[in-house]
Design brief:
By secondary structure, the protein is α+β, with helices and mostly antiparallel strands. About 50% of the residues lie in helices and about 20% in strands. The chain has a 6-stranded mixed sheet, with helices on both faces. It has a 4-stranded antiparallel sheet with strand order 4-5-3-6. The protein has a 4-stranded parallel sheet with strand order 8-7-9-10, with helices on both faces. Helix 1 runs parallel beside helix 3 and helix 3 runs antiparallel to helix 4. The radius of gyration is 29 Å and the shape is globular. About 0% of the residues have low confidence.
Length: about 550
């Protein structure tokens, strides 16, 4: 029987949940209704809780409060996608419930889970049943019911899991989209895996934490602060070329240099000897080199000085990035998009900052917040341009000292329309209304490929097939591109648009895009059809009609 959870035990439970979820992320991804190659639920939830694991590994929390606070903060900053944000909200409420508690018992644990559910429901504008919200709510209610008579925490978790599994199985009946696809909710599945892993940890099961976690992204640049300047053994990088003027063997020079330094490279031919060596006495090196011939070129650099300067520059850059920029104007705009063409277009329309992201790469709340803080304006408008990023962007409201306004654009064309309505000299409320209205007039079709076999509402989808979506709903699927583009044209024609814009992706040529434009022009002869290089990954075409 386990009646108490302390800070260290809760830390192990979070780490177990992160490790376990990472192992199941692809299985969870497979439950996504449409097999588009997006950043899927399992991946987003794994990266989100993986951020908590990373922070907890650095800490030795002495209370449940401390563990929960560290986890909640890391979950919020690392939250990606709607599922990741909801997961962070569930544990933000959990942390709030266990404030000022060194340990917790069964009743306090159950109440913490219930408070997490309450926090998540309040934050989601239009909560849908048959989702992670439903599963977590019914599981928390079960925990509270069990805690009325039970003090064994294992029993609380077991009751949560039992009721949660029933709730998860019923999601296919509660959510019409899931019912058409014949699958259970992916987020609910991920949540139950987390609860099961927490129980397993509490029961003493050990979890091996990988040295390099799947959620960890590669660094774009070297971290020069990772070691001290004094750790550099040899200070001078010495490079030179000498002309060969005698028959002295270059191997002797290699042996000489080997006694003085490291990183030695000696390359020779009939005319020259080229040398690279790290050492502490470049004068001696050059003197010896002159016994082989005359110097042609020479370069000596102080690596300790270079390292010190690099650390200082990197620190200054990081400080600049993390510092809230002083306002230089009333309103600024930050957008999310992927693709050189789309980024250039948004900047031309007046965006101050562009966060690289979208399909397959949902930026975290912290990524969005950093760009907001870097924008030199009192008020910053955020255009997520993806339905799976809107909730993450919304978490930034109140996290920055700037006034943050999220325009909930679900697609890139909605973002473009909103930017066209933006007036940099206008007021905040007027701009918010105008941008929301403009975004609402746009209809969007996206064309990509099926990432896996699937079936939806009687339509069989084969891996590799073209997959067309309209307003994030399935429009058509199949291997016949001509049939797909005809379906797109007929569907968009129903809206009687005046302007149709075709943004073509990184693997599409201008000629191919123009061929599609000709088909759409025939379907909508009164519309102005424009072809624009977007350069976006994953999606062959993003098409707007307004």
């Amino acid at each position: 029987m386990i009646e108490i959870i302390d800070g260290l035990a809760l830390k192990k439970m979070f780490i177990a949940a992160a490790v376990t979820l990472d192992g199941f992320k692809e299985e969870i991804n497979e439950l996504n209704v449409f097999p588009v190659p997006d950043g899927d639920t399992g991946s987003n939830m794994s990266m989100t809780i993986g951020n908590a694991m990373t922070e907890l590994q650095k800490a030795e929390p002495d209370s449940v409060t401390k563990t929960a606070d560290i986890a909640a903060g890391a979950l919020l900053r690392g939250a990606r996608g709607n599922s990741g944000v909801i997961l962070s909200l569930l544990f933000r409420g959990f942390a709030k419930s266990v404030k000022e508690k060194k340990t917790i018992g069964a009743a306090e644990l159950a109440e913490a889970f219930r408070e997490g559910v309450s926090t998540a429901y309040k934050a989601v504008m239009k909560p849908s049943e048959g989702t992670i919200l439903t599963v977590s709510r019914l599981a928390a209610d079960a925990a509270c019911e069990a805690a009325e008579t039970e003090t064994d925490i294992e029993k609380i978790f077991e009751h949560m899991i039992s009721v949660g599994e029933e709730a998860l199985a019923d999601t296919v009946n509660q959510n019409p989209v899931l019912k058409k696809a014949g699958v259970i909710d992916a987020g609910g599945k991920g949540y139950l895996i987390i609860i099961e892993a927490m129980l397993a940890s509490l029961q003493g099961k050990t979890f091996e934490v990988p040295e390099v976690k799947a959620a960890q992204e590669p660094k774009e640049k070297a971290d020069f602060s990772g070691f001290d300047t004094e750790d550099i053994k040899f200070a001078y990088c010495t490079e030179f070329i000498i002309g060969r003027e005698n028959q002295k063997d270059p191997q002797l020079l290699r042996e000489f240099l080997d006694k003085l330094g490291d990183s030695i490279v000696v390359v020779d031919d009939d005319e020259i000897i080229k040398v690279h060596v790290h050492n502490n006495c470049p004068g001696i090196v050059i003197t010896e080199a002159l016994t082989y011939g005359n110097l042609i070129t020479v370069k000596i650099e102080n690596m300790k000085l270079q390292h010190t300067e690099a650390v200082e520059m990197q620190a200054a850059a990081q400080e600049e990035k993390s510092t809230v920029a002083k306002p230089e104007k009333a309103i600024g705009v930050v957008v999310v998009c992927a693709g050189d063409g789309l980024e250039a277009m948004f900047r031309d329309l007046g965006a101050d900052g562009v966060i690289s992201g979208g399909q397959t790469m949902n930026p975290s709340t912290e990524d969005i917040l950093k760009e907001i803080n870097c924008t030199p304006a009192d008020t910053v408008f955020v255009l997520p341009n993806n339905k799976n990023i809107v909730l993450a962007a919304a978490q930034c409201v109140g996290m920055s000292e700037k006034n943050v306004v999220v325009i909930p654009t679900n697609t890139v064309p909605q973002g473009v329309s909103a930017m066209l309505a933006f007036d940099p000299d206008g007021g905040v409320e007027a701009n918010e209304a105008a941008m929301n209205d403009a975004a609402g007039t746009v209809h969007t079709v996206t064309l990509t490929y099926a990432a896996r076999n699937s079936s939806f509402d009687g339509i069989e989808i084969i891996e590799g097939d073209y997959l067309a979506m309209i307003e994030n709903k399935l429009l058509a699927a199949g291997a016949d591109f001509e049939a797909i583009e005809k379906e797109i044209g007929e569907s968009l024609a129903d809206f009687e648009p005046e302007l149709v814009s075709i943004y073509y992706g990184e693997n599409v040529t201008g000629e191919q895009a123009q061929a599609l434009a000709d088909v759409l022009q025939d379907a909508m002869p009164d519309a102005e059809v424009t072809v624009i290089p977007g350069g976006q990954p994953v999606y062959y075409y993003i098409i707007s009609a307004e």
